[in-house]
Every structure is written in structure tokens, then in C-alpha cells.
Amino acid sequence: MQDIRLILLTIFLILNFLILGFNIFYRTQVLKSTYEFGAIMPGAVKRLLLANILLVILGIIFTAIFLINELIFRLFN
Amino acid sequence: MEGKDGEYNDGRIKNCLTLPGEKLLIAKRQHWFVIMVPLVISIILNFGLIAIVSFLFLIFLNSVELLIAASLLISSIFLTGITKLIVDWFNHVYVVTNRKILEVNYAPLFSDALSDLLLDQVRTIEVDIKKDNILNQLFDMGDIIISFDRPSKDKVFVLSNINKPRESGIFLGDQLESVMESSPAGFQNSKSDHPSKFTQDYVEEKYIDETKYRRV
């Protein structure tokens, strides 16, 4: 059971990092296009892009804590 | 985001006016309802998936940590999708000027499509308005179909799912008609003193021919 938990948490962490990478790249691209074309992106969209990144970071922090916790538990048992 | 020449604040639209003497007639995005349907579906799917995951992790694996991690992951994936949906909608613009008709469909990081049609070489234009179903009637949403050189059906330009299609269509029809009158390739009426339709001209000509024949 603990093996499954460890594997799943590791997969979630990797996926979170992938999504974070995508989101940062996507945000850069959207803002770059804003400057290229001169379009004024609404503030709400910019905030949504930022909120997205923050949510992924939150996911990474939580998953990392759970994973470390799991590893420590395995180490001492 | 509708407006006449100088009233426009969107920099991107101003960047589209590249030809000499070009003036903006209309610029529109698709109706907000277009993104509402996938948006609502995404939110429902998000919560549905979280419910399934919580059932799996709490009942079978008995782990709250996995549930929290999975919920955050699922939420971030769906929020990414929703953001992309909104950004793509924002970057899909129809622009009609007195010189050209333009459709900009730009999805950052994924695709960039630009469809452009110059009005200088067009002879005739017809504007049709279409509201298909009950939702379109309810939200005042529909298509404006601009047909060029209709007898040959050369080109049709569709402004799909836009807000207030009737008002915009009538406005566009009037504006494009005046543009066509000044166009070098546009249809010129030779009898400028009394404007008439093509059918009337034809009937009058036929009548004159018949009288000539009788006199001979």
C-alpha cells in the first residue's frame, strides 16, 4: 500500500512540474504576443495566468511535503 | 469591442489598419456564450473527477495526502485549460475595414491563423444574417455571412457567433455598399440620374425593343 502511495505521489510531483513548466512558458508566450501585436490583454486574464502558476506551485509544495513525509516514515520503519 | 474609426482603444486592431486611407468599419469577437459552454463543462468535469479520485483514495487507499495532491493537480490541469480557452477566445477577432476583411485567430504557443480579403478586387457584396437556434435567439448571437461575387460563389466570409448580428449586419451592409460604389472593380450604375434595379433595366430594355419591332 505504501509503495502505491509513494509511486503516485512521485507521479503527481513530476506532472506538477511539467504543468508548471508549461504554464510559465505559456504565460511568457501570451505576454510576448501582447507586446508583439500591441493587444491589451485584460487584467483578469493576466491574473488568471498568475493564479494558475501559483496553484501549481501550491500543488508542488504539498506533494513534496507528503512525499518527504512518506520517505521519512519508510526510512524509520 | 465594437466601434467606429477613432473610438478604438485596442492596439491590435489599430495595427491591422495597414493600407493607405483604411478606416475601421467594425471589429468583433465571438459572443461570450461561445466559451461559456466549454467553461461550464470543464468545471463540472473538474469536480466530477475530484469526486471520483476522492472516492478511490479515501475508500481504497485510505490516504488524505493523495487526495489533496490529486485534487490540486486536477484543478491546475483544468485551470490551465480554462485559461487557454479564454486567451484563445480573446485573440480571435473579426475586423472589417473599408479596404479589407480580416480574421485573426491566434492561439499563443499553438497556432496562428490570419485570413485576409482585399475589397479592391471585389465586384459585388451581399451580407446575410443568420440566427440558427433558440440559444442564438435568446443571447442575440449569430453569424454574418458576407458573400462576394455571389453568382459565381467565389468567396464567402463568415463572422461566426458574434454579438448582435442583426445590427452589425445592417451596419456592415450599408457601409460596404458605399465602399463598393467607390471601388474600381465595383458595379457601376450607368443611369446615375434615376437609380434602378437590374431587373427593371432589363424589363424596360425589352419593352423598347418590342415597340421598335412593331413600328417596323
From TrEMBL, chain A:
Name of the featured protein: Uncharacterized protein
Chain ranges passing through the membrane: 6-26, 47-68
Annotated keywords: Membrane, Transmembrane, Transmembrane helix
Origin superkingdom: Bacteria
UniProtKB/TrEMBL annotation, chain B:
Transmembrane portions of the chain: 32-60, 66-90
Keyword annotations of the record: Membrane, Transmembrane, Transmembrane helix
Protein name: DUF304 domain-containing protein
Species in which this protein is naturally found: Candidatus Daviesbacteria bacterium GW2011_GWA1_36_8
Source organism phylogeny: Bacteria, Candidatus Daviesiibacteriota
